[in-house]
User: What shape does this take?
Amino acid sequence: MGGGGGDGGIPSRYSAPSKVDDIAKKTEEKSDLINLKNRETEINKSVEEEMNKASDKVPWDHNDHSIKHVERVLEIFPKIIDKFEKISFSKEFLSNRNLSDLEKEILKYSILLHDIGYTKSIKDHSLMSKEYIEKLNRGIKKSLLKEIATIAQLHTPEGIKQLGGKSLFDLVKKGLISDRIAYLASIL
Assistant: This one.
């Protein structure tokens, strides 16, 4: 059959990742997950301090965007994930699988940090949240911070527009974000 070493004559550059690559990826994901879990309390405390300092900047007639709002969302987070994983379309975005533990942790961080931008600006809070998250220097990989920041930014229509889209679907269609990021942002 020839063709270059892949299964069934398919050239090797098109073959599935090797078991070694798969193991390396899973090991890296596990390390990232442990790192995020280890930093969660520290980040939570920092967010609470920042939001409490800036609580007087949010007008009284706005919805609650204090640390209490974040705590309520985090409290119902497991139920939200459970519901989403039971919806058939959700697996379409994730290649017929449920969220990984790392993706759940990334989403949890996005929830924790999505309104931190209110400490700087009400109008542009989603962009300010993104910038705050990307500048975090707490031993978290930059690639993870970028994902968390993008998901947090996309929780508002303004954040979607800032990235150049009309909707999450539009951003995916334009190739600006992945299906996976759109799915995680839709949960937030």
Q: What stands out?
A: The chain has one domain: 18-51+64-187.
